[in-house]
Amino acid sequence: MQSTAILPVAPLPDVARARVAVALLFLANGMGFASWVSRIPAVRAPLGLSEGELGSALLGMAIGALFAFGPTGHGVQRWGARRVTLGVSLAYGALLVLPTLAPNGWLLGLALALFGAANGAMDVAMNALAVEVEQRVGRPIMSSLHGLWSAGGLAGALLGGLLAHREVAPSWHLAGVGLAAVGAVLLARGWLVGHVGEVHAAEEEAPRWARPEAALAGLGAIIFAAFLIEGAMADWSAVYLNGALGTTQAEAALGYSVFAMAMMGMRFAGDRLVLQWGAVPMLRMLNALAVVALVAALVSGSLAVTLPAFALTGMAIGTVAPLVFSAAAQRSRRGAGQGIAAMATLGYGGFLIGPPVIGWLAQATSLQVALGVLVLLAGVIAALAGHLAPAAPTAAAPTPADAASVDQAPVQRL
Q1: Would you tell me the crossing angle of helices 81-95 and 12-38 to the nearest 10 degrees?
Q2: What is the CB-side half-sphere exposure of residue 179 using CA atoms within 13 A?
Q3: End-to-end distance of the chain based on CA atoms, in angstroms?
Q4: What confidence tens digit (pLDDT) does each residue in 327-341 have?
């Protein structure tokens, strides 16, 4: 991501500690979220929820996040990213255990709404804080931070599988992970003090909703499809393995584990692979392979086929977010910030509505049929990958004002 402002550079040790502190927050968020999704079957079982009832309860998490986005954005602008991030991160750790304590589906939905609000607020705030730290580091770090989120997700999913195998109650499991998240926040707070100032350029009131431009519709469709796949895999992979394939809860947790591991690997290796293959051929090839693999997995009903298919799906969508964000930042006529915000809104929308939609489709048909939507979405990404091709340069004579702005513009390092 390109820096949008030149900020005072802090001493190197301070910058390093600030970067580690933000990395801890991304890890904690990813681990907490994956810990929850890995125990969904264990939470569902005693409540006796059908796929449709579970999907409705999961909708509470989406509703909570949607209500949290606007206030969090205004809070960051008013009080600063650091302060808001630390506050909502503490709430995230404290509320992580809440869904495991629900005695019925309605209260589960309410608990997930509260947890979803904390999760959505933390997502917005910690990314804003990461941008501030990135500007002080002097080079891009956002992709690696999202890779660390995936690493936290992998750790959380593996831990969930281990504790499910040992029949540890999900309430004790998530209470422990929440306590660890609170500890990470407190540690980050100490490392961020004095290192990341609350620096905000004066700007007009930002719109509550970032609307995508018509020229970016193809990019929006790609990121919407990719994030819907990710949300569906997060909430339904374990349920599918445990229910449709009849695996144990410990084996079921492997579904999201292999998906998260593959996505993490692609996020760390994606920059190099794009340079070697190109973004368009890479996305087309991986998503075409994911289509074939997912069809084979859903038809065969075999764990040996399904786990590799889930891994290939994680690889197929792992680099979508950084590629789409970069393209939108360069092409948006409203500026890089608005382009990225519009794509993030579409992507997060897909991530949030995916799980309940899959649940409703499963209620009407079967979970195996409902997951066929992922096949269609991977096909959409493969078909629309051409929208990521570099835009053709336009030849336009510079005006005197343009020439003056170039002469006076500060040089920024990518």
Answers
A1: 30
A2: 6
A3: 8
A4: 776 677 765 445 666
What's the token pair of residue 67?
Answer: 């209500």
Distances from the Cα of 84 to the Cα of 75, 116, 123, 134, 208, angstroms: 7, 16, 11, 18, 18
Is residue 56 a contact partner of residue 363, using CB atoms and an 8 Å limit?
Answer: no
Rounded distance between C-alpha atoms, residue 227 and residue 121, angstroms: 18
Residue 340 has what pLDDT? Answer: 61
Cβ pair 153, 260 in contact under 8 A: yes
Crossing angle for the helix pair 372-384 and 279-300, to the nearest 10 degrees: 160
In the numeric block, which tokens belong to residue 413? Answer: 């390092």
pLDDT of residue 236: 86
Query: How does DSSP classify residue 6?
Result: -
Report yes or no: 266 and 314 within 8 Å, Cβ to Cβ.
Answer: yes
- CB contact at 8 A, 223 and 320: yes
Q: Say how far apart CA 245 and CA 230 lie, in whole Å.
A: 20
Instruction: Name the packing angle between helices 249-277 and 12-38 (round to 10°).
Output: 140
pLDDT digits (tens, 9 = 90+) for 284-299: 999 999 999 999 999 9
Tokens of 44: 């569902």
* DSSP three-state, residue 265: helix
Question: Nearest 5°: CA angle at 298, between 38 and 319?
Answer: 60
- For residue 164, what are the CA distances in angstroms to 45, 58, 168? 13, 21, 6
Three-class SS of 176-191? HHHHHHHHHHHHHHHH
Chain centroid to CA 31: 12
Cβ atoms of residues 219 and 341 within 8 Å: no
Other beta carbons within 10 angstroms of residue 301's beta carbon come to: 12
> How confident is the prediction for the chain on average, in pLDDT?
81
**Encoding tokens for residue 389?**
């091709």
CA dist 37 and 147 (Å) reads 19
Q: Which range (28-42, 207-221, 325-339, 393-407) has the least confidence? A: 393-407
The owner of tokens 């920024």 is 412
User: Per the structure block, which two tokens stand in for 274?
Assistant: 């794009």
